[in-house]
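Posting for a labmate who doesn't have an account.
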Amino acid sequence: MTAPQRLTDRKREAIVQAAISEFRSNGFDITSMDKIAATAGVSKRTVYNHFASKEELFAEILHRLWTNICAQEDSVYSPGQPLREQLRQLLRDKLALLADNSFLDLARVAIAATIHSPERAQDMVLRIGEREEALTAWIRAAQADGALKPVDPEFAAQQLHGMLKAFAFWPQISMNQPTLSAEMQSTVIESALDMFLACYQR
């Protein structure tokens, strides 16, 4: 009973990976279920057995992107511990995610498809809004402890993310640049920390 199930899982995974490849190469609207089936090496019927439509396939890709984002462990603020060390670990975790090729592939597909049809991402955006991001929660806790100046935590977190993504996300997404070397990651992190703490640390 387990072998057929594993085969089904493998076929489902092949379909999802084929969809990611085709959506990325040709766009959501041009890609057909026939093409996805051919790329996955399965019949069109098999594709429809797993996903009733392209929209369902795209929803699965968004779900995986969401799962990757949520899989990051929340770093709890530690009173009395140096802010720079705590933030450095948070930013290292974020850059590790941004350097993951699977995550970048999912992000490329999601961004390309939602540019032409923003409503496709509406559910994703709503779900993200339901869960406070780890860095925002950390900033809120640091403020409550008196370690950071009063500022909208979401605004401050967005600023810090922006400093990372300018080097470690958007060039890779838009210009297919390679992920950052370990040395460059360290440079980006330390520079972002310098600016963030100079602005907000008490």
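Reply:
Got it, the structure tokens are right above this. The chain has a mean pLDDT of 86.
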